[in-house]
Design brief:
The chain is of the alpha/beta class. It is built from 14 helices and 11 strands. The chain has a 7-stranded mixed β-sheet with strand order 1-7-6-5-4-2-3, sandwiched between helices. Strands 8-9-11-10 form a 4-stranded antiparallel β-sheet. α4 runs antiparallel to α12, α6 packs across α11 and α12 packs across α14. The N and C termini lie far apart (about 60 Å). Bound molecules: pyridoxal-5'-phosphate.
Amino acid sequence: MKSKNHPHFPSEKTLDPTDWAAFREQAHRMLDAAVDRMETYREGPIWNPFPPALQANYQGPLPVEGIGAEATQAHMTALLPFGVGNTHPRFFGWVHGSGTPSNLMADITAAAINANLGGRDHGAMYVEKQVVNWCRELFQFPESSSGLIVSGTSIATVIALKAARDRCFNFSNRKTGLQKNALGPLVGYTSEQTHSCVARAFDILGLGSDALRKIAVNERFEMDTVALQAAIAKDRVAGLTPFVIVGTAGAVNVGSIDDLETLADIAQSENIWFHIDGAFGALGVLSERLSPRLSGIKRADSLAFDFHKWLHVNYDAGFILMRSEEDHRRTFSERPEYLKGAERGLAAGNPWPVEYGPELSRGFRALKVWAQLAEHGTAKLGALITQNCEQAAYLGELVAAHAHLRLMAPVAMNICCFRYQAEGQDDKTTDAINGEIVIQLQIQGIAAPSTTLVNGRNAIRVNITNHRTTRADLALLVREVERIGLELTASAHPAAV
Ligand SMILES: *Cc1c(COP(=O)(O)O)cnc(C)c1O
């Protein structure tokens, strides 16, 4: 296999290895180190703070002369234990996917091809088209829908809301901008529980985050649809132009799912774009337990979700699914002469992904998504989603049965919010103790929940989007919360720790 033929003149340089046999050996060593790391994900503390000695490795000046392959690899190997912890079975913070060892193969393959998926006609493009078709099928979107793989739900939301906005102007605003806007101020609606990426999209799109109305929620933390209709009516009377309703399938605080069917009805009768943030929850359509509550997804104009959360695709990969391919293309298409398509040759394969989003050069994220679905299949991936929901319900039961723990919100899905409550302790002290319990769990390397406010009170938030978690991990978490809670309560000034 050794390349015998080096066509370079002695003065010509390349970044390819001069000794391919040595490179191959080095690559095998790196692969072994990576697999060793993955095989031992359960072992050791959940989080290793990055030691100052290693930090120093990343504080040097710009290298003029390189340090070479061996030293570079040594640095990379040293990094392996210092992830955020989301590969560990007791990582419960925020909403992180846990990844798969098999996805390493997809990343190696993608790196070897080094494809640019902005457009043109090559193998990688067919893989992405397959993923787009699979997403259509998964969410029961029509043939005339379109989609694009992106880095995550945040950018997918920007793409969707740009389409929603531009359609209001029949896309003329793409040339004239919003400065001389005939419609007056545009306004959109979402719930108080919605992720901040929606307000950020309003900001990025020049609408201003004040133009996003945060509708109150009911006791299940779902958008109050009566209040929504009242807000739309009030804005219309005031001469504003309602243009989008953003529903959530799996809200980030407690995992609630808005009444998507009713939101779709309202959007339809008001002639407003209906977008759904389904970052983690949308893939619940794969789970028998959740899919009945997600039936409204198929009525959305656009859906943003992540593969890197509940599908456990290694970071990063998200998706924007758009009901109207035409609206989608008219929102972004702009092909200057140097990007002209062709019927044949490398410039064929139209339309190109660049016509569906803001990016031209795009990596081969599609491969790891395709590989995850192809290898494991939707049945198993869906069963793992159900398993996580059952585990969250189990944790809810442990909490309910515990004298010192209190459930803070119903377990709607895969998230359980609770807190440690010693007898007679006031709310403020309890807030502080629970914040400290979470920090101690992380620092002691036991588990990594995060915190959130539920009805204004600090809660321990356990999100399970983790195919490595077991019920034993949750029982251990409850024991450790109790242990730390008791210790903190016993100390003289717990609020001051
Ligand atoms: C994670 C998340 C987002 C943001 O997604 P990114 O992939 O991190 O950009 C938006 N909404 C919800 C509900 C989320 O959980």
